[in-house]
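At this stage, I wrote out one protein's amino acid sequence and its backbone structure tokens, and that material follows here:
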Amino acid sequence: MGLQAKTEKPKNETGTLTARLGENLRRAITSGQFPPGSKLPSESQLSETHGVSRTVVREAIATLRSDRLVETRQGAGVFVLEATATASLPLLSVQNLDPARVSSMIELLELRTAVEVEAAGLAALRRSPAQEEAILDRHYAVRACLDAGASTSEADFALHLAIAEATNNPRFREFLAMIGKGVIPRAALRNDDSEHDQTAYIRLIDNEHNAIVVAISNGDEEAAREAMRRHLRGSQARYRALLREQRQPV
């Protein structure tokens, strides 16, 4: 029996399929399934794999392109881009920041990268079921705060502590606990807990967290390390961009 042509779907259903496929591809990219520089499956392959029309595939790819996750290269296909660490996102109020504090936070992020990349890898290898559940709970707690419009800093710190705990090497947790909530840059650099001007930024952080949590849950040591590395190096790049903006002549 020959393949039947796909019938045109109602517009609202097409939009739902597009959003669903876009989210699936976004998660595949942020989890490292499609690392930076890799090529996505062809339009026909995605259509067949996900059971959607090519129109849906094209629209889903367009949303990823607008978010700077992928780029289309004429005659070659669709490729995953490096994380856009310096994307134009609301970050922090420049006028209220001391450049020396920003520089200090960048130094701390470099130190955290050296420690927490390894912590993520060990957590993927050593976590117990209870520890994995705790990581998931802390991850969802960050999202709950974001959805409620509340400060996410405490929940963010708790997630990083839970990952350190899952290494089953107490020194990792002790390191983060010694620094305290100041390990979260926005908590250390702002004088209040308001994050109403940072929604887009926090959602970016949440996507980066999701890649780390998925890799740990899958027991993928290298993917967990890479996701944590992208998260912390991305933060370094964002704050360096902020520092450059502060130093521009008015």
The beta strands are 70-73, 77-80. The CA atoms of residues 31 and 214 lie 7 Å apart.
